Amino acid sequence: MLLYFFVLLFYGRSCCFCAEQKGNDHRLPPVESGDLVFRNGTGQWSRYFRDVSLREKRFSHAGIIRVETNAAFVIHASADDRTGAGFVHQEPLHSFINPYDDVAIYRVTDAAKSDREQIAVFAVKNLGKLFDAQFDLTSGERYYCTELIRDAVAFALKTNMIKTTAVSGYEIIAIDDCYAGDWVFLIYDSRAATVP
């Protein structure tokens, strides 16, 4: 049962736009390639994904923003709730954050824009890789959402900024591991009345 839980655990330039769809109105600040986006999903396993986080049980999925010709996309690793099969893929930012009410976007602190863009470059290079249903942090051949973020940030910054969380003897990367610490700062929070 524990393995099944883990199998399903983590299923450029600037651009400014509104992401509106299905009643949500996320008025986003300018986003950049390499920004990290988090959402609180409503899928079958979202509650479990949130509960793995030790500091803040707020989000259930994450991705990396890529901006291309004034259009923003999210590259993320996800899997089907029923089968656990999936891969790293790209979708428009507006469809990644909608219809979800709870969304946040973080940016790496004290890094050149060109370094932050390398986070997205790494993600693009891994498009199509299979979902990491074994949650093996050493393979580099398959990814779950936060594992992709960890490796992309390490590639871009030449150091591992994202620590792991121990759950039942397994080392994993929980959602809140990806924004814990002062190496990132919040640029958008759907809970706030205004952008920070």
What does the model show?
This protein is of the alpha+beta class. The chain has helices spanning 2-7, 46-52, 93-97, 113-125, 145-157, and strands at 14-15, 18-21, 24-27, 31-32, 36-39, 61-68, 71-79, 86-92, 103-108, 165-167, 170-172, 184-189. It has 5 helices and 12 strands. It has a 6-stranded antiparallel sheet with strand order 8-7-6-5-9-12. It has a single domain (2-189), classed as endopeptidase fold (from Nostoc punctiforme) (Alpha-Beta Complex). The chain starts with a helix and ends in a 7-residue tail after the last strand. Helix 4 packs across helix 5. Residues 1-23 have low confidence and may be disordered. Helix content is 22%, strand content 30%.
Share of helix, binned: 10-25%
Pattern of helices and strands: HEEEEEHEEEHEHHEEE
**Rounded radius of gyration (Å):** 15 Å
Quickly count the helices: 5
Q: pLDDT under 50 segments (min length 5)?
A: 1-23
Mean residue pLDDT: 85
CATH topology tier name: endopeptidase fold (from Nostoc punctiforme)
Q: How big a fraction of the residues is strand?
A: 25-35%
Shape label:
globular
Alpha-beta content class: alpha+beta
Multimeric state of these chains? single chain
Look at the structure and name the CATH superfamily: endopeptidase domain like (from Nostoc punctiforme)
Distance between the termini: 41 Å
Write the CATH architecture name. Alpha-Beta Complex
Instruction: Profile the largest sheet.
Output: 6 strands, antiparallel
The overall strand count is 12
Total number of domains: 1
- In order across it, which strands form the biggest sheet? 8-7-6-5-9-12
